[in-house]
Amino acid sequence: MCGFVGMVSKHASVSNEIFVALQALQHRGQDSAGIATMDATGARFTARRGLGAVTQALGAGDLEALEGPLGIGHVRYPTIGTGVLQDAQPFFYRQPGVLMAHNGGITNYDELRDSLAERSIHLLSGCDVEPALCEFADGLMRRRKAHHTLEDAIEALVEVRDAVRGSYSIVAALMLDGEPTLLVVRDRHGIRPAVIGQRADGSYIAASESVALDALGFTAIEEPDAGEVVFLRAGQPPIRRAVEARSKTPCVFEFIYFARPDSTMGGRGVYEVRLALGRQLAERVKTKSLALDVVVAVPDTARPAATALAEELEVPLREGLIKNRYSGRTFIMPSDAARTAALRLKLNALRCEIEGRSILLVDDSIVRGNTLRRVISMLRDTGATAVHLAIHAPPVRNPCYYGIDMSTEEELFARQFEGTLDEVEVDAAAVLGADSLTYLPVERMDVAFGGSRCAACFDGVYPEPVPIRDRALIERDRRKA
Question: Which residues pair with 196 in a beta bridge?
Fold first, then answer.
């Protein structure tokens, strides 16, 4: 999972604004960050990339060097490849001169690498967007050597669609029809998010989440549809073209965990969806007749659902856990050792709200279970008389091959349990050290979410097929990370 920003403007430089927008998307990746720009003639490309958070990876000198009215920025956490600098985005291809970044998970990296090598095109990284960039550039160059048109780009994107499997929202910058052009394209199922914004000065922005637009005073005007490409040029109306659309199935885990609560996706506010998830979870908790004193959310993602849950149960909501604001998201840290070490610094219990009370602890999901084991132990050490756990998502039973870091079966906590949902809850609660566990069933999640969705991590239904060979290679790559 990553975050991207693309911007095209009549201003001399967009790098400073992209830098600000990337900070709004920092929650989507903290391993590396980068910005690349193109000048108004398409003759000069500049890129700066670094490891760590945005303000660590890019300095004032980098921004000064990044000149041009068209640019792309990216924050990354790796699901394919590693966290090394050579895998940081955006990427640049010299012929015909294209910048590209993406969010998603391209599942046939090895196949693409081998196919490109047969054409004497060799990859320099383990990042899965690079082969997509090379396929796109190769498609353009086979049509004409220079002066590419919008129609050339569409034909090349059709070839990318046919060659590339998995999920992606891609943003690219290049000259088309002699004009600086930003394009954003989504896979044919629209699994990964993308939004486009416009400003009164004629500038356009494309980003992974609407919060990037808010930070710069852009108004969201549309989202590329599944299988659609949108071309953006400063001061001109967007040009929309269909590449290929199938079922539109946006990732439900974006709403449950990954996206910022103040983002809007597909016309729905993430915060409102999380409230609805909490209300649905309350209905299942009510059937268990638990004796509860307070509801406590695991900060920060679970807060909206915990608020709605507490209201429905008529149990006080309290800040029982205080989060270190300088702690990163442990879920997206690169290794289990790093996640475990970070957990020791991430949360601390507030004794005045915990001691002597029966707690309903609310969290968004259980992927590996590391965080919750420690939190439950911490609450008991702080004097909780009981710790009941409520999760506003179903059990995570299946790897995600579309860009979220839960790619191997053995790392998934819920896979070790069999039986009905009630039986799984009893056994899982014992392993976690909780007095009880309540999951949100898939059917109640669907009531809260509404509409079609990709929920393969919960129900095992992958909208874009992932062959066994691709799965094995992805899992091998993740075990090396």
Answer: 206, 222
What the block records as the tokens of 388 is 């009941």
Angle subtended by helix axes 336-346 and 370-381, to nearest 10: 30
Using CB atoms within 10 Å of the CB of residue 335, give its burial: 0 to 12 exposed, 13 to 18 middle, 19+ buried: exposed
The tally of CA atoms less than 13 A away on the side-chain side of residue 82 is 9
> pTM for this structure?
0.93
3-state secondary structure of 154: helix
First to last CA, the chain: 15
- Dig out the tokens for 55 from the structure: 């303000």
State how far the Cα of 343 lies from the Cα of 413, in Å rounded to an integer.
Answer: 17
Beta bridge partners of 101: 171
* Residues known to be catalytic: 2
Other Cβ atoms within 10 Å of 315 Cβ, number: 18
215: number of Cβ within 10 Å: 18
Instruction: Write out pLDDT tens, residues 124-183.
Output: 999 999 999 999 999 999 999 999 999 999 999 999 999 999 999 999 999 999 999 999
Neighbours of 56 (CB within 10 A): 12
Are 81 and 128 a contacting pair, CB within 8 Å? yes
Is residue 33 within 8 Å of 53, Cβ to Cβ? yes
Q: What angle do CA 298, 19, 36 make, to 5 degrees?
A: 125
**Containing H/E element for 390?**
strand 386-391
Residues ≥6 apart with Cβ < 8 Å to 400: 105, 253, 406, 407, 456, 457
Tokens of 241: 């073209």
266: left (phi over 0), alpha (psi -120 to 50) or beta: left
The pair of structure tokens assigned to 394 is: 């179903």
> Other C-beta atoms within 10 Å of 297: how many?
27
Burial of 59 (0-12, 13-18, 19+ CB in 10 A): exposed
- Asked if 140 and 148 touch (Cβ cutoff 8 Å), the reply is yes
**Cα atoms in the Cβ-side hemisphere of radius 13 Å centred on 20:** 12
Residue-wise pLDDT for 278-302, tens only, equals 999 999 999 999 999 999 999 999 9
- Helix boundaries (H) for 350-467: 351-354, 370-381, 421-432, 442-449, 456-459
- Phi, psi at 174, each rounded to 5°: -165, 175
Name the token pair of 19.
């830098």
- The domains found in the chain, sorted by start residue, are 2-249 (3.60.20.10), 270-452 (3.40.50.2020)
Measured in degrees and rounded to the nearest 5, phi and psi for residue 181 equal: -130, 135
